[in-house]
């Protein structure tokens, strides 16, 4: 506990004190203690779900927090009794980080306050009678108010602990791309939690309605089975997504180790590709795949001899042909990765040109896949605006002017205009991608600008 700042410990103590006050019974309000005990045991069991063999040795973070049970308690019980449902499960929950005891106490107090607020909002709007009465649709209004109260309390408390224990500034404007929303200790917490909690709230409302129905509590417990399965599927999705990200990171790191001149280049091409995708109105799933395409566009360099990538002086025609094989090498490497989808075509065709003079297939116009046309623009833009050991970065305006000059012959004008619009709104901040210590003024010639051929948008020759 010594590593926790004093102000953070005082904040936790105040929250715990507030939770104890909320647990005080209300006068003239009798709670069904058997229901409190049943829900508390059920929630405690759900907090242990990470140990279930069906999930695996360790479930992803958040799998064990079953808000439907807590919100069902808020819909069924008076505020103090509803708040009590969260305490045993939170105190017995599995905690990975130290100080474990303080974290359990904090979680128990935080959830108790959130459930108390949700129950109070629900009761204040007549939700208790609406759940049990014939006019069921009206129950959605107090239930919605309870969800909002629950999310608001969690947001306020989480933001406070982030500010005091983690040192996150209360308000901070994002510097990414030069602009961005105001962020900080509370930034985005409410918006991110509202959707999932609303879904859990609907499940909790179903539990409460069945609980008060002639079918009784046993029928209410059946709601948890599909909810659990849904959470397990969601966890599997995130596990798979994490594996995808790890695969891509490993490939990019391998390219960066082999060709130091492109260090950081792949990530920036991925980001520029996503900016173009958003301007084109692509949905989030396609935009994410396009980002993967930008990140992996040069992965085929793993198949090119290192001596060619780092060779000083001009390349021979034979050496140029070897380097021009890198899109095909890259496609062979990623074609078996099913989640990449359209990104695989971008890896193969990102050096095609609209006039048919590109490689490896000499495609023309709309024969070139859309993702490849996007990555080609993003690739050239980052090459021109990045400072490396062999050249200084061009100003963004000069790079865009060059892209517009080459639009129609080398680049798709639609993609160029999309990038211009995105940069006009978001800005761009290139960084040094070569190793520190390089002499910027030395103008060491990289392989990408030593290949004999037609001039490209980067001011050199046809880049590999």
Attribute tags:
two-stranded antiparallel ribbon; Hypothetical protein af1432; 19 helices; elongated; mainly alpha; single chain; 464 residues
Task: Sum this structure up briefly.
With 464 residues, the protein is mostly helical.
Q: If you average the pLDDT, what whole number results?
A: 78
How much strand content do the residues show? under 5%
- Main sheet: strands, sense, barrel: 2 strands, antiparallel
Number of helices: 19
Helix content class: 55-70%
Extract low-pLDDT stretches: 50-64, 173-182, 431-455, 458-464
Side-by-side strand order of the widest sheet: 1-2
- How far is it from the N-terminal to the C-terminal residue, by CA? 55 Å
Number of domains: 2
Radius of gyration: 29 Å
Overview of this protein structure:
Helices cover 59% and strands 1% of the residues. With 464 residues, the protein is an all-alpha fold. The protein has two domains: 6-222, no CATH class; 244-449, Hypothetical protein af1432, CATH 1.10.3210. The protein has a two-stranded antiparallel sheet. Helix 1 (6-22) runs antiparallel to helix 7 (140-165) and helix 17 runs antiparallel to helix 18 (396-406). The longest helix has 35 residues, at 224-258. It is elongated.
């Amino acid at each position: 506990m010594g590593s926790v700042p004093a102000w953070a410990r005082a904040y936790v103590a105040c929250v715990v004190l507030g939770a104890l006050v909320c647990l005080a019974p209300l006068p003239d309000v009798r709670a069904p203690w058997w229901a409190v005990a049943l829900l508390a045991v059920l929630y405690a069991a759900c907090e242990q779900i990470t140990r279930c063999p069906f999930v695996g040795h360790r479930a992803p973070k958040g799998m064990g927090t079953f808000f439907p049970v807590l919100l069902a308690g808020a819909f069924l019980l008076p505020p103090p009794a509803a708040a009590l449902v969260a305490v045993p499960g939170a105190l017995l929950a599995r905690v990975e980080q130290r100080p474990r005891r303080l974290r359990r106490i904090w979680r128990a107090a935080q959830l108790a306050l959130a459930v108390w607020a949700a129950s109070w909002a629900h009761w204040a709007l007549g939700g208790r009678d609406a759940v049990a009465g014939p006019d069921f649709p009206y129950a959605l209004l107090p239930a919605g108010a309870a969800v909002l109260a629950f999310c608001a309390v969690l947001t306020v408390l989480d933001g406070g602990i982030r500010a005091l224990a983690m040192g996150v500034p209360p308000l901070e404007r994002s510097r990414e791309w030069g602009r961005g929303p105001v962020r900080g200790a509370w930034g985005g917490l409410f918006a991110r939690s509202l959707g999932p909690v609303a879904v859990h709230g609907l499940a909790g409302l179903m539990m409460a309605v069945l609980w008060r129905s002639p079918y009784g509590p046993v029928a209410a417990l059946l709601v948890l089975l599909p909810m659990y399965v849904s959470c397990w599927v969601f966890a599997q999705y995130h596990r798979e997504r994490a594996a995808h990200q790890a695969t891509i990171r490993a490939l990019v790191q391998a390219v960066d180790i082999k060709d130091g001149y492109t260090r950081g280049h792949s990530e920036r091409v991925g980001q520029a590709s996503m900016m173009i995708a958003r301007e084109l109105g692509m949905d989030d799933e396609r935009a994410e795949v396009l980002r993967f395409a930008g990140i992996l566009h040069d992965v085929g360099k793993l198949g090119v001899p290192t001596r060619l990538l780092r060779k000083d002086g001009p390349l021979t025609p034979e050496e140029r042909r070897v380097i021009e094989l890198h899109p095909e090498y890259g496609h062979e490497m990623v074609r078996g990765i099913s989640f990449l989808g359209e990104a695989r075509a971008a890896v193969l065709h990102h050096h095609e040109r609209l006039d048919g003079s590109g490689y490896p297939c000499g495609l023309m116009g709309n024969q070139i896949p859309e993702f490849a046309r996007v990555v080609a623009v993003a690739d050239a833009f980052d090459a021109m605006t990045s400072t490396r050991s062999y050249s200084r970065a061009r100003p963004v305006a000069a790079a865009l002017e060059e892209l517009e000059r080459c639009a129609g012959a080398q680049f798709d004008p639609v993609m160029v205009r999309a990038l211009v619009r995105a940069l006009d709104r978001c800005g761009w901040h290139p960084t040094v991608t070569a190793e520190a210590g390089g002499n910027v003024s030395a103008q060491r010639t990289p392989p990408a600008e030593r290949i004999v051929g037609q001039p490209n948008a980067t001011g050199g020759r046809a880049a590999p």
